[in-house]
Amino acid sequence: MSLITDKSINVSDALDSRITVRDFLERPVPDAVLQKILKQALRSPSGGNLQPWKIHVLRGDALKALTEAGVKRAQSGATETPTYRAYPSPLWEPQRSWRYKLGEDMYAKIGIEKENKLGRLMWLMQNIKFFEAPVGIIITGDKRLEMPQYMDIGIYLQSLMLLARQEGLHTAAQGWWRQWPGLLSEHLEIPEAEEVLVGLSLGYANPQAPVNQLRADRTDVETVVKFYGE
Ligand SMILES: Cc1cc2nc3c(=O)[nH]c(=O)nc-3n(C[C@H](O)[C@H](O)[C@H](O)COP(=O)(O)O)c2cc1C
Questions:
Q1: What DSSP string describes the chain?
Q2: Each residue of 103-160: pLDDT tens digit?
Q3: pLDDT at residue 181, as a whole number
Q4: Candidate of 104, 174, 180, 218 to mutate for ligand 1, largest count of ligand atoms within 8 Å of Cβ
Q5: How many CA atoms lie within 13 A of 65 on its CB side?
Q6: What pLDDT is stored for residue 107 in this prediction?
Q7: Global pTM?
Q8: Are 63 and 130 in contact (CB under 8 A)?
Q9: Model confidence at 90: pLDDT above 90
Q10: Cβ neighbours around 43 below 10 Å, total
């Protein structure tokens, strides 16, 4: 299935056509559209209606300043203590193989061989540029949040991603930003009591980009769903 850039007409359509887009067009996102989806996503449910998300939206000069500083910082070899680990370590089967397969499928699309470690590392740097998207979003939350609130934030993220599809936009969720809490604090107003949870690139997908042709595998219903009763 090739990349769909049309506006989604219903939830199934949005869900089916949403992929992680890792190459965006320069085309700006109209302010009214951005405001609309940010507002609508606030209808996301959260346990106890805690609404634990804080959303930082970067565009224009602010986005440029962060991404340029980020590239410089990363190229200097600097690292920071991440907010959290990306995956449990060690990862077990079948998740381990699914993760591996995703990476291999993605690098096959962009033609970076396994031996080309530097090439793969350089490609990962696209994360720090929000994949060239015109809008970069960082979600922070209080350090005292617990697991149920992280679920809420995941729900919020999915709402935003589906609403984006309805506007003909695409997204890339980016846990990657967990690695740069210090850099982000230099560019955003993140109170001491809060931490960086996740990022999101938002914009119009580049339909020509090979990386955007990746349709990541999914398991079948039988593997993850168990039915009880009739
Ligand atoms: C919470 C979350 C964090 C993610 N972080 C990253 C990331 O930092 N960089 C990236 O390229 N993709 C990231 N992804 C995208 C996943 O790799 C992707 O959703 C998965 O492989 C399924 O592919 P699809 O989104 O194209 O269907 C993230 C996805 C989620 C839901």
A1: -PPP-SPP-SHHHHHHH--B---B-SPPPPHHHHHHHHHHHTT---GGG----EEEEE-HHHHHHHHHHHHHHHHTT-----SS-SS-SS--TTHHHHHHHHHHHHHHHHT--TT-HHHHHHHHGGGGGGGG-SEEEEEEEETT--HHHHHHHHHHHHHHHHHHHHTT-EEEEEGGGGG-HHHHHHHS---TTEEEEEEEEEE-B-TT-GGGG-------HHHH------
A2: 999 999 999 999 999 999 999 999 999 999 999 999 999 999 999 999 999 999 999 9
A3: 98
A4: 174
A5: 11
A6: 96
A7: 0.96
A8: yes
A9: yes
A10: 9
Distance, CA of 96 to CA of 45 (rounded, Å): 31
What is the tens place of the pLDDT at every residue in 159-171?
999 999 999 999 9
Question: pLDDT (tens digit, 9 = 90+) per residue, 185-218?
Answer: 999 999 999 999 999 999 999 999 999 999 999 9
Question: How many whole angstroms separate alpha carbon 199 and alpha carbon 190?
Answer: 14
Interval 16-25 mean pLDDT: 98
The predicted model gives 12-33 an average pLDDT of 97
Contact 136, 58 (CB under 8 A): yes
Calculate how far, in angstroms, residue 228's C-alpha sits from the geometric centre of ligand 1.
31
Domains within the chain, CATH numbers bracketed: 11-76+92-216 (3.40.109.10)
Q: What are phi and psi of 107, to 5 degrees?
A: -65, -30
In this structure, the strands spanning 194-203 and 54-58 are unpaired
Q: Which residues line ligand 1 (CB under 6 A)?
A: 19-20, 22, 102, 127, 172-176, 198, 216
In contact, 222 and 161? CB cutoff 8 Å:
no
